[in-house]
Amino acid sequence: MAKHLNTxxxxxxxxxxxxxxxxxxxxxxxxxxKKGYHVEDFNDGAAGIEHIRRHSGxxxxxxxxxxxxxxxxxxxxxxxxKANEEIGIILVTAFASVDSAVEAMKLGxxxxxxxxxxxxxxxxxxxxxxxxxxxNREVAMLQSRLDKQYGFExxxxxxxxxxxxxxxxxxxxxxNANVLLLGESxxxxxxxxxxxxxxxxxxxxxxxxxxxxxxxxxxxxSELFGHxxxxxxxAVTRKIGKFELAGNGTIFLDEIGDMxxxxxxxxxxxxxxxxxxxxxxxxxxxxxxxxxFATNRNLMEEVRExxxxxxxYYRINVVTLQIPPLWQRKEDIPLLVKHFLGRFNxxxxxxxxxxxxxxxxALCAYAWPGNIRELRNVMEHLVIFCKGDRITRxxxxxYLEQREDRPRSxxxxxxxxxxxxxxxxIRQMMAHCGNNKTRAAELLDISLRTLQRKxxxxxxxxxTF
Length: 465
Ligand SMILES: Nc1ncnc2c1ncn2[C@@H]1O[C@H](COP(=O)(O)OP(=O)(O)OP(=O)(O)O)[C@@H](O)[C@H]1O
Ligand SMILES: [Mg+2]
Fold this sequence. Notes:
By secondary structure, the chain is α/β, with parallel strands linked by helices. It folds into four domains: 3-145, Rossmann fold (3-Layer(aba) Sandwich), CATH 3.40.50.2300; 152-319, P-loop containing nucleotide triphosphate hydrolases (Rossmann fold); 326-405, Helicase, Ruva Protein, domain 3 (Orthogonal Bundle), CATH 1.10.8.60; 418-460, Arc Repressor Mutant, subunit A (Orthogonal Bundle), CATH 1.10.10. 48% of the residues lie in helices and 13% in strands. The protein contains 19 helices and 16 strands. The chain has a five-stranded parallel beta sheet, sandwiched between helices. Strand 4, helix 4 (98-106) and strand 5 (111-114) form a beta-alpha-beta unit. The longest helix has 32 residues, at 119-150. The protein is flat and about 110 Å long. Mean pLDDT is 85; it is low at 1-11 and 404-408. Magnesium ion is lined by residues 189-190, 254.
């Protein structure tokens, strides 16, 4: 836990005191130091501000006198807020300047004290404010961590389709309607499910993902519904299922297309009645959570084939977000490449700066059947194996070259013999690979020695490569 959340008085809250009257300054300092606070004190505003600017990340609280020669307390207040909004501020005023105190509160002071200072009161107020500041900081930190992981800034994309999708997510997230996410494997369905949760009112609640394809159906039922003790052989204790655990949060039923028909019927009932019982139980339990579903299957097709219940299909297909495959938004590729480059540099302690234009072009031309997951894996590979600070096509994993470059069709004139066909294949592949025998052999799926032998034979017949 961050040191700031440690809010007992023995913990070292950092306090700055700015006060021109030395008696009062010393009294305050001593009162706080005795309680274990780390105190820095200054007798003029300018020096205090200087210190605050330099240590703004560590300071919890600033206590400043309002009236001081030179830089006054209001300036200290403004400059402190500028340096770090989260630092708490207590203004100390003489009784005569209550108006300024009111103004100070308006400007963002958290508290004020009038002279002469009651030290007991003083310590209590300080303690309270430091606790607040620490909690605020902790919350802000957790928040930014969550936003970073799941916010839109982590779903990379600037293509028009993605922009539209982000907009839709913003709108839909606020409604708490159940959502179906459709898209090929690796397009980011799970990322979007998270984003929906993070942008909804359920943000602070649980997000529970369950992969329906990864869990055998007998187990899946009790994973979702929970079960009572003795509900079936092996049910030695009561188990609380995900529907119940999710509370007021979000349940993400991933690969819903893989759920068996029996369980589909039970799920339909839950969605319709918004209540359920544990397996082997009779207590009705209300559902409060939101459902997000995802599948990379064509659900309409599954319905036609009798593998997916039509009524369930219509039930979950109310708000549907279609995530486009990567090949339909190639303009996002350079952005994603840059994103993953940064990320994997960091992960693997590398400092690869860029891809040369030919390499980038090749990545943009590739079809990406595995979508962003595949791009991500390729980028990790490239960063790991890159020797300098620039990735070239030489660094590409072989399979990428193969899938991207393999000629799609060869014309075979009628009357061609098997031997001629083989030679034609070698001729084309050698041309394609710039006469690099190793690569040509790989792409032809024969050994290098075999290729060398065949090339030699062809050369003996007068061919040149
Ligand atoms: N737009 C994006 N920006 C950044 N990373 C992305 C994006 N889309 C997907 N990813 C990353 O690609 C990987 C695959 O994404 P995810 O698991 O969400 O795909 P999926 O659609 O759920 O795939 P599957 O159908 O196979 O489960 C993850 O590592 C994810 O972080
Ligand atoms: Mg997934």
